[in-house]
Amino acid sequence: MAMDGDWVDAERGTNSRRGLGFEQVGRWLRRRQGIERNPVYRLAADVWEGRIPVERAYQEVEKHSILNRLADGDLWELDREAARAAVDDPERALVLARLAILAARYKGFDRVLVDCNLRAAELLAEMGETREQELHLREALHAAERIANVPGQRRALARLARLAFERGETERARELLARQLDAGREDVDTLEDVETALLLGDLARGEGDEAAAREFYHRAGRSARRVGHFAGVVDALLRQVVILREQGDRDQAMLLLQQAQDAAERTIDTRLQVEIAVQAAALMAEAGQFDGARSQLLGALERAREIGDLTMESRCLTGLSRVEQHGGYLAEAADHFRELAELEQRLGNRSAAVRALLEAAEALIKLRDAEGARGLLESAAQVSETLDDPLLRQRVLGLLGLAYGALERRNEALECLMQALDDARRSGDRQAECRWLLGIGEVLLQFGETADALAVAARALDLAREAGSSRLEAEGYALVGSINLSRGMLRDAEENLQRALTIARAYGDPGEQLHYLQILAQLSVQAGQTPAAIKHLRQALEVATVDGSPEMRARLHGQLARLYQSSNHLAEAEEHYRGAVIAAEEAGSQRFLARALRGLATVQDAAGKADAAIETYVQALKVTEELGDRASAAILHYNLGALLYDRQEDDQARRHLDKAIEQAMMAGDFATSDAARELLRWLNAPGNGGQPDAADDLLLGEIAVSDDSEPLPDLFRE
């Protein structure tokens, strides 16, 4: 039999269960009826509509009549409603969140207390209220610690750390961030923990602790990859790349950049993909891998244009132009500098536009397209007149002088160069003064005024030494060497050019080394010293193999092949023509490929390799005719016809000889036309038993023919 006390307890239990049932039913009804039936929400609505002050609402929510009607689900519902309201009206959302916090505090719902306090802190952060924000974060942290809510602890610690960081309390921020990561295992890291690891890495790196920084970046990368946050993976990898580049470990940096590219490709962030490509290109360019850098930047440029990001497009064009400039792709560099100038004009960056035009013009001057350079420079001069930038104006005048000089407009060239020289002197810029003096010397040399040119070159050399510019000193010696060459003083010319080459090797400029080596080779040819010319060109080829463009390698292989061919070293000539073919194909240059194939075919023909020669002639004809080079096609048809004549393949021989006559007449090459007619006359003679008088002279153009082929002493023009 139950005692009275037991009955009371049982009754209390029954009432408690009945009360819980009523509460659950009430909660279900309120859900059916909507958030408006929630008593705390109604209090908040009264505040919003001005029926009661907010302080009164805070007092009301503490009453048992309201608290007893609330379950934790009702408060979660209030938190969700606060999140929705925050989009349009953060202040209304804050009232709702604070009422939910009071209710959760009195009910002892710690999990709700964590989330609602974090919600209130977020709203206050949007409003710029830091003091109250910290109070809410501390309450969220304490509630999370009471119930061992690790995600809640981490979120509260992360926000507290950022507040401390914004106040400049770096040590406090570091302590809180470390507590955040230590609060849970790495395998449960969230996006916020990834950001924390990155920030801790940044703090460690700022203090010079690169080992600790890389550890934090490693953790960030691992956690980001695990949760599928590939943008975070990229961030972590790029930070490590920065450290590795500073340490000089380019290979490892490149490996991480490739991983970053793979991760970026798994995001929809095209801008991030472009950024990584730009960084990869910069690293490749530092290592002298200009072809790879160019490929990266071309892809990046295409993507930047797809998303219409003009700033990123400008970065890509700038990097691409510079890489092509250093890699020897001068024509492409000029085109991209022109595009950059147009883009900068559209963006309103007139100074940047002028600088891009100047770079394009300088590339064209090196390519001997002085007319194209002049047009760009005159446009640049018009814009520079509207800018208060004397240095820019000086450079425009100097380059315009060089362009006029190349166009043989002596007076205009000297006038512009003298103005640039005066501007440089007024500004005290010794290097610029030296550069324009060298330009004046080149113009004077061009017009045969060698005595004045030599005096100018001597003054330029003095200035180069005063300014400590090895590059300008090398150019000064090269100018003196050119003056010696024009006077027939070959020994003095070689001595000065060797000095220029030695200096260029010391400061490690492959482009300048190639330039001086080719001049030395030309000098050797003029002196009748073919072995010396070959030696210089082989040295140039070694430089170009490491640091030059495929076009440069094709050109050097062709020059070497012609020298060997002129010395009747046909095996070596064939080897270098094959090298020229490979380099031309790598460069994608039909012009270089046609020249290399024509040379290879004539060498094989002269060496008696008839089958190989026929095959190469056919390939050369295909490329040459695609280029529309009738003069070269005429000689190739003639040579192939002559070879087929020797093999007694008369029908094929006639077809090619007829083609040779047709192409030669269209090109105005009457010598080739006459030679083809003469051979046809022998071929069509009665009985076909005759032979030309000079069978050994049937082959034409043993040194590759084209618009840009010259006699041996001039083969080295670019």
How does this structure look, described?
The protein has helices at 4-33, 39-48, 54-61, 64-67, 72-86, 90-107, 110-127, 130-146, 150-166, 170-182, 191-206, 210-226, 230-247, 250-264, 270-286, 290-307, 310-327, 330-347, 350-366, 370-384, 390-406, 410-427, 430-446, 450-467, 470-486, 490-507, 510-526, 530-547, 550-566, 570-587, 590-606, 610-627, 630-646, 650-667, 670-683. The protein is mostly helical and 718 residues long. Helix 7 runs antiparallel to helix 8 (130-146) and helix 33 (630-646) runs parallel beside helix 35 (670-683).
What's the structural blueprint in terms of helices and strands?
Layout (H helix, E strand, L loop, with lengths): L3 H30 L5 H10 L5 H8 L2 H4 L4 H15 L3 H18 L2 H18 L2 H17 L3 H17 L3 H13 L8 H16 L3 H17 L3 H18 L2 H15 L5 H17 L3 H18 L2 H18 L2 H18 L2 H17 L3 H15 L5 H17 L3 H18 L2 H17 L3 H18 L2 H17 L3 H18 L2 H17 L3 H18 L2 H17 L3 H18 L2 H17 L3 H18 L2 H17 L3 H18 L2 H14 L35
Keywords:
718 residues; 35 helices; 81% helix; elongated; disordered N terminus
Average predicted local confidence, pLDDT:
80
Q: Please state the overall shape, judged from the principal axes of the Cα atoms.
A: elongated
User: Rounded to an integer, what's the Rg over CA atoms?
Assistant: 40 Å
User: Biggest β-sheet: count, sense, barrel?
Assistant: none
Helix content estimate: over 70%
Q: pLDDT under 50 segments (min length 5)?
A: 1-33, 693-697, 702-718
Strand content: under 5%
Tally of extended strands? 0
Helical segment count: 35
Helices and strands: which structural class? mainly alpha
How far apart are the first and last residues' alpha carbons, in Å? 117 Å
